[in-house]
Structure formats: structure tokens, C-alpha cells
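Hey, quick one: can you model this chain's 3D structure?
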Amino acid sequence: MEPRMRNIATIYPEAVKALQTLGATAEKGGLPAETLGLVHLRASQINGCSVCVDMHPRMLKKAGETDERLFAVAAWRDARYFSDADRVALALTEAATRLSDRADPVPDEVWDEAARHYEVASSAAW
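Sure thing. Here's the predicted structure for all 126 residues.
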């Protein structure tokens, strides 16, 4: 099977710059680097980006991430390899990545649980 289009980075190199800027901004958000890498991988899995699904595990592996966590990130709810903080980051990632899939894409429970683990505004402030 042939890809439907060439790598988007070769077609629109300025898009890669925008993604790199977005990534640099996310790195300043306070998530541990290991968790942020898992978040990127999970969002890439949901979005179906084959380049990203290939790239993120390689980068995470070089940074010391375990095979168990890399292999289990798509099934994070049932895998024993993730902390509560990892789980809420992955739950928030799924909710934010699937905004158009549901009427209440980021429920207050998910947001409030994220606020317990990370410095984010509580839903009450919104």
C-alpha cells in the first residue's frame, strides 16, 4: 500500500516549525518530560500520525523510557506501569484530542483530577 501523500514536513516545512514551537511551549507547561513524551505518543496514536507514532517511542527510548510503558500507552487505563499523575495526563490528552467526539469533551472530573496533580486552573475557576 502506498501512502496517499508525501510526508507533510516535506510539503509544508513551515508547519514543522509551528509544531516545534508548540512542542517547546508544551515543555514549559510543568509536566515531567517522561509524562509529556507519553502524552505526545498517545495524541499521535489517536490522530493516526505514523511519523509521530514511530518518532516518539524512539525519542522516549533514548531518554530512558521502558519498553513496558511504551508498549502499554495505548492501553494505559488497564496497564500497571503508570502513576495516577500519568493516568490523568493521558486522560486529559485523550479528552482534548477528541474534542469533537463527545458533547462534554473534557469533563470537570478529568480537569479537576489534573489540577490535583499539576498546576492547572480548576474547573470552578472557569
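One thing worth noting: The two ends are 47 Å apart (CA to CA).
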